[in-house]
Design brief:
4-stranded antiparallel beta sheet; Aspartate Aminotransferase, domain 2; Aspartate Aminotransferase, domain 1; amino-acid biosynthesis; 2 domains; 358 residues; 7-stranded mixed beta sheet; 11 helices; alpha/beta; binds 4'-deoxy-4'-aminopyridoxal-5'-phosphate; 13% strand
Length: 358
């Protein structure tokens, strides 16, 4: 008997997350922000880093950062819970509010970690599958499933399909069910103004909104995400979290980034216009289908997708994400929006490969 035999049975099918990362000249595989941060943000981050003593434990309440985030959203500190990336908060939500007797409802295809964390927390999942053609959500089916659920997760805009969830659907779920509703807005800064439902948190104690500094803020390596929620939810999550999961550097750097966030506007608008240029470029390639996107990535259905993805990597040093064998995403690749040069490299390489494959 080795140690793996002693693992809790529910965890035995899990394997270490290894994206088999291949170093590529152009990495458009993980929806990171590929743009350089503005000088004002970089210098604020550098100063914050240099001023941070590492011999002291972090503030487990992360109050300075929570105050800045609370100010960003016009709420009080009690409504903000920070985490080691959005991932930690998603796990803690399932840990705190899931379990064998409570169902999670999701709308796949969506972010794979929801189902993984639910499985780890022995939480049954009901998937209300999106339309196979346009990825829309059947509101009636969702509300019906949510009537028996403890928790619903909606992703707006969704990864990997790129579309927003209707605000009216979120309101309807809150009005017609007793479920806790999490709206994951990891990518919302790339969506049109007014797309967020964060303003509904103040009047809906069962609504939670997830945000991250990994995307628009360009700080995926820092690992900071946060939840805007009712104070009772924030307290519940505060009670079960690893007390120092957001370290001193992460708190200080995140605070500097949040305080200088207005300088990020040109980066975000460049990514949005590059996204539209990428979609237009893809439309010129025979056999490629795309969907509208409110994010920093584009989902594209490509002939012989897995082979095209392999050739992009091996022959052109361009890395994209392969979803071609994922249920509901057959033949699809997910292309993160890069800089102008990176997007040109991707489009040129794709055009070459598709011409040769035809
Ligand atoms: N939600 C969605 C929809 C995501 O795509 C991601 C990251 N890919 C996350 C949450 C988590 O991001 P992070 O842990 O970097 O904050």
């Amino acid at each position: 008997m080795d140690a793996s035999d002693r693992l809790r049975p529910v965890l035995r099918s899990f394997e270490p997350y290894d994206p088999a990362f291949s170093p590529c000249r152009v990495n458009l595989s993980a929806n990171e922000n590929t743009h350089e941060l503005p000088a004002e943000v970089r210098s604020a981050i550098g100063a914050a880093f240099r001023a941070t003593p590492l011999n002291r434990y972090p503030d487990p309440m992360a109050n300075a950062l929570r105050d800045a985030l609370a100010a960003r959203h016009g709420v009080s500190r009690e409504r903000i819970c920070v985490g080691n990336g959005g991932d930690e908060l998603l796990f803690n939500l399932l840990f705190a509010f899931g379990g064998p007797e409570r169902t999670l409802v999701t709308c796949p295809p969506d972010f794979a970690e929801y189902a993984n964390f639910a499985a780890m927390c022995e939480t049954p999942v009901t998937g209300v599958w999106r339309d196979a053609e346009d990825f829309s959500i059947d509101g009636d089916a969702l509300v019906a499933a949510a009537r028996d659920a403890a928790l619903v997760i909606l992703t707006s805009p969704n990864n990997p399909t790129g579309d927003l969830v209707d605000r009216a659907l979120v309101e309807r779920l809150l009005a017609e069910t007793d479920a806790l509703v999490l709206v994951d807005e990891a990518y919302v800064e790339f969506a049109p103004e007014g797309s967020s439902v964060v303003d509904l948190v103040a009047t809906n104690p069962r609504l939670m909104v997830l945000r991250t500094l990994s995307k628009a803020f360009g700080l995926a390596g820092l690992r900071v995400g946060y939840l805007v929620a009712n104070p009772a939810v924030v307290d519940a999550l505060g009670a079960v979290r690893q007390i120092y999961s957001v370290d001193v550097v992460a708190q200080a750097v995140a605070l500097a980034a949040v305080e200088t966030r207005s300088a990020l506007a040109p980066v975000i608008s460049d990514i949005v216009s590059e996204r539209e240029r990428l979609i237009a470029g893809l439309a010129n390639l025979a056999g490629v289908r795309t969907w509208p996107s409110a994010t920093n990535f584009v989902l594209a259905r490509v002939p012989r997708a897995a082979e095209v993805r392999r050739r992009l990597r091996d022959e052109h040093s361009v890395l994209v994400r392969d979803f071609s064998s994922a249920p509901g995403l057959e033949g699809c690749l997910r292309l993160s929006v890069g800089t102008r040069d990176e997007n040109d490299a991707l489009l040129d390489a794709l055009a070459t490969i598709l011409r040769e494959e035809a």
